[in-house]
Amino acid sequence: MNTSYEKWIKQKIVKLQAIDCYSAGVTPELLAKQIGVGISQVVKLNFNENLFVNRGKQTALMKELADEIDLRMYPEDEVPKLVKKISRYIDVPEEYIIVSNAGDELIDRTIRLFIEKGDVAVSFSPSFAIPRLCVKRQEGEYVTIPLKEDFQIDVKSMLSQFSDKTRLLYLCSPNNPTSNQMKPQDIETLAKAFPGIVILDEAYGEFADYSFVPRIREFPNMIILRTFSKAFGLAMLRLGYAVANPELAKITTEKAPLPYPVSGFSIRMGIKMLENMEIMKTAVASLKSERGKLIKALNQINGIKAFDSQADFILINTKKNADEVYEKLLKRGIMLKKWGKILQYENCFRLTVGLPEMNTKLIEALKKIQSD
Fold first, then answer.
1. Residues 86, 228 contacting (CB under 8 angstroms)
2. Residue 188 in domain
3. Which terminus of the chain, N or C, has less C-beta within 10 A?
């Protein structure tokens, strides 16, 4: 083997191994095998999936689609059709819309386009991890400012970080994992003062009280992320979109992705869901109703604090050690996302708003664990 190659590849691998990566943790199938139960007995509440979407109606749409599409063909005409449907849904002109493989890919795409070595990105913490990983890969610096005790933005501290080197501001609202929506005046203040690209992640926007999408024309530097994974229940298909001023939308659409980056099946299924909006609207209404009931039930458990939510998940803090609670829940086949310490709260978990029968199992398990 060429000695120059050996030296180069070893150095490259060491550098790449130093990059943090996303880890999903234990899977439902693996957990089911570990505890000796069928996978149907696992209560999966760790990934913020919308189980209130009517699966039967979704399956019927997929069967229709199977008869309509030709999988041998590239999706040449699909994106414009989806853009037209999204435009009608959010009441924004078509030239403002970007289609992607869910929000994660749009975060990655935007950061590859606009962050270079030595550039600085700013966000608050805790929040979604993917932007930090993408910035680090670009050899940029990722600066975070802790949220205030009420999980709102420390605007003064964030403004103090803005400089001629800060090129990306990432704001997640409703925020993952705290589940609250940020004050609109705070987002406006930061976006208008920031000397670079502002990513406003509204992946959970349909579950919240307001959206910045109707105001996109006020913010020429803003890219608003939306997804079909949450409210529309298409998590497996990885379909998302963004809203930005036409210049940013054109650059982000044309200059980063490979040809036909989004599956034609995913695009056409997105169109189907937009043509059958009652499926999403019914699911969101049902989830929000159940969310209120679940928060109330959690707060009635001794040693549990559940926070208000504007998303399809809830943040809780337990009096007992998070590792202990997590392991006891896994042994009962219940999967939550363990966060540990968040600001002044030591033992935090993020949990999906599940179907009523799933939530009942969770409540009973937490009661038992907290009383042991």
1. no
2. yes
3. N
Residues 127 and 253 in one domain: yes
Q: Show the tokens assigned to 318.
A: 């337990």
CB proximity list for 200: less than 8 A, separation 6 or greater: 171, 173, 187, 191, 212, 222, 223, 224, 225
- Both 136 and 211 in a single domain? yes
Q: Determine the pLDDT at residue 301.
A: 97
Task: pLDDT band for 266, please (50, 70, 90 cuts).
Answer: very high
pLDDT in tens, 195-223: 999 999 999 999 999 999 999 999 999 99
Q: How far is CA 290 from the centre of its chain?
A: 20
Domain hosting residue 325, numbered range = 21-50+279-371
> Looking at residue 297, which CATH number applies to its domain?
3.90.1150.10
The pTM of the full predicted model, rounded to 2 decimals, is 0.95
Listed in order, strand segments (DSSP E) in the chain are: 43-44, 97-100, 120-125, 141-146, 166-172, 197-201, 222-227, 240-244, 304-306, 313-318, 334-335, 337-342, 345-352
Rounded Cα distance, 126 and 97, in Å? 28
Q: Are 127 and 339 in contact (CB under 8 A)?
A: no
CA distance linking residue 179 with residue 339, whole number of Å: 13
